[in-house]
Design brief:
single chain; 232 residues; alpha/beta; Rossmann fold; Arc Repressor Mutant, subunit A; 2 domains; 5-stranded parallel sheet; 4-stranded antiparallel sheet; 8 helices; 12 strands; elongated
Amino acid sequence: MAQRILIADDNNDITDVLSLYATKEGFEPIIASDGEEAFRFFQQYSPAVILLDVMMPKEDGYEVCRKIRTMSNVPVILVTARGEEFEKVMGLDIGADDYIVKPFSPSEVMARVRAILRRSANTGVENKDKANIIRKSNLEINMDEYSLCIEGKKIDLTKKEIETMWTLVSNPNKVFTRDNLLNSLWGYDYYGDSRTVDSHIKRLRKKLNEVDHPDWSIETIWGAGYKFSIKD
């Protein structure tokens, strides 16, 4: 059975061309023309991946993505005509897996879809072979539940923030460059500005600092990147 791809956009020309390319790739396209319809079709059809336009009638793509993230970790790619850095960061911060700016190449969109699905499949295989819970000092990350707790208090993080912490905490004292984190977490050579990582880490630290954690920290290594540092 073909994997379903939900394409949500109020521009028929865009949905037509993306639907054509998705069908050629072996997907079954589901088309939504507004935010409310997109969320309803997400619940009805359980797509493998979602292409979600930001500026849609009734509910915008950000709001739809937020609602989806309360229920599912299905890959979401936001599509928009806007290209400002803060909007990209906002999209990633609410749990989107990628962000594409119009005008775009349909072939590039499909390449990103394939990359995200490969990464999701590989993560599933890896998780069968290793523990899905990691504990360091007063920190616990549970990838089965996509949750992070400090001193037993659950911290409200996005999917991408949880994955960022898992990557860093699983490799204590290893320095990850910005490009390392983008490629590792997004699963391919990211097309955006690597400074997105700086904003992402800034927001992550702010949430982590809701509870004291004197034995560990996310350190900035100037000129290099970031690492999870923990006291012996």
